[in-house]
Amino acid sequence: MSKDYYDILGVERDATPEAIKKAYRRRAMKVHPDVAPDDAEAAEKFKELSEAYEVLSDPNKRAVFDRGGDPMSQGGAGFSGFGGGFPGGFDFTNLVDAMFGTASSRGPRSRVRQGQDALVRLRLELFEAVFGATKPVKVQTAVVCPKCAGKGGEPGSEPVNCGTCDGSGEVSQIQRSFFGDVRTTQACPTCRGYGTIIPNPCTECSGEGRVRTTRTLQVKVPAGVSTGIRIHLEAQGEVGPGGGPAGDLYVELVVDEHDTFRRDGDNLEMVVKLPMTAAALGTTVDVATLEAEWPDSPVEDRSVAVEVPAGTQSGTRIALKGKGVPRLRGGGRGDLGVTLLVQTPTKLDDKQRELLRQLAEERDETRAEAIAAKGHKGVFGKISEWFS
């Protein structure tokens, strides 16, 4: 044969179909008559390039060419003229597909499609987030239509082929262009590309195959969660059109603030007010734990005795091991931090004032002394940090 289609496209003889398509696309952009209007041979070059692509992109024609035969004699006479179209079986939609990567045919699309994911938020008390809970969640979503079971038609009726596209879901138009007769394909406007028409749409869902409703789900919240964590419930989202598979449901958790406890990672923090005399002499303080708000907790875990040593200063933090938040990933629990806030009496009677004066004289504490502590937050820093 006089023509070497591999040489025209600039590819090796063992080139893959993808390499052939890329080579054609690259060269077509250089020799196209609209791109190279000053080249008198542009039309002929583009015709030759397109012929090479037609042969090498077709496995049967390529096999004939590789054996030394004439591929253009197999079922067609090839190009009869650049301006008069491509009577040799070359569809212009294939050329567009090669150049721009678009599909030349879609076919009828299914009425059944995947549903969308859904997101809801669930508020939790602190003890529910710490110890876990099972909570009801209301979800407004789409479910399969109970009347038509997702088919979209009235019971007993069936979809019929679209008369406009004859069930293909597509309609074609032929227009004259520089290349000759150009065929374009688009979704059928009558059936919207489905290929069928529902003559008697379901009165419950208007032919969509799904209806909106409110469902209540029981969501199990694991112990140790925090605000922002999402629980993934597979196939609990919206049912798709035509009764298609449901999407997923994501439950985003929001933990309310507590009046007594503040969470810091896996630790719980609280402040206990302590009289000045108790801090000086030492004492034992019974502190209610977060378990006191959890109905399922053992009675003995609902409070803990905190030993306050004599001379305790305001801002001292006592850590109670294993009384904090269960670790969401891994075993064990954090700590319960008890910060002691020593209170100075503000209202004293004459007898109390005299007793304190005597104590101050006995301890030689009648005059204050200012001491600068560098690099130390001090009591006020600790207390301010806790309240922030």
Question: Care to describe what's here?
Answer:
The chain has about 400 residues and is of the alpha+beta class. It has nine helices and 15 strands. Helix 2 packs antiparallel against helix 3 (about 40-55).
Residue share in β-strands = 25-35%
Parts with pLDDT < 50 across at least 5 consecutive residues:
74-94, 98-105
How many helices does DSSP assign?
A: 9
Number of strands: 15
Measured on Cα atoms, how large is the radius of gyration? 40 Å
> Averaging pLDDT over every residue, what do you get?
85
Q: What structural category arises from helix and sheet content?
A: alpha+beta
Order of helices and strands: HHHHHEHEEEEEEEEEEHEEEEHH
Helix content: 10-25%
Can you summarize the main beta sheet? 4 strands, mixed
**Shape annotation:** elongated
How many angstroms separate the termini?
A: 87 Å
Strand order of the largest sheet: 10-11-15-14
Topology:
Layout: H1 5-9, H2 17-31, H3 42-56, H4 59-66, H5 92-100, E1 118-124, H6 126-131, E2 133-144, E3 160-161, E4 170-177, E5 180-187, E6 196-197, E7 210-221, E8 230-233, E9 249-255, E10 262-264, E11 267-275, H7 276-281, E12 283-288, E13 303-308, E14 317-320, E15 336-343, H8 350-362, H9 378-387
Parallel strand pairs: 1-9, 11-15
Antiparallel strand pairs: 2-7, 3-6, 4-5, 8-9, 10-11, 12-13, 14-15
Helix pairs in contact: 2-3
Key words describing this protein structure:
alpha+beta, four-stranded mixed β-sheet, three-stranded mixed β-sheet
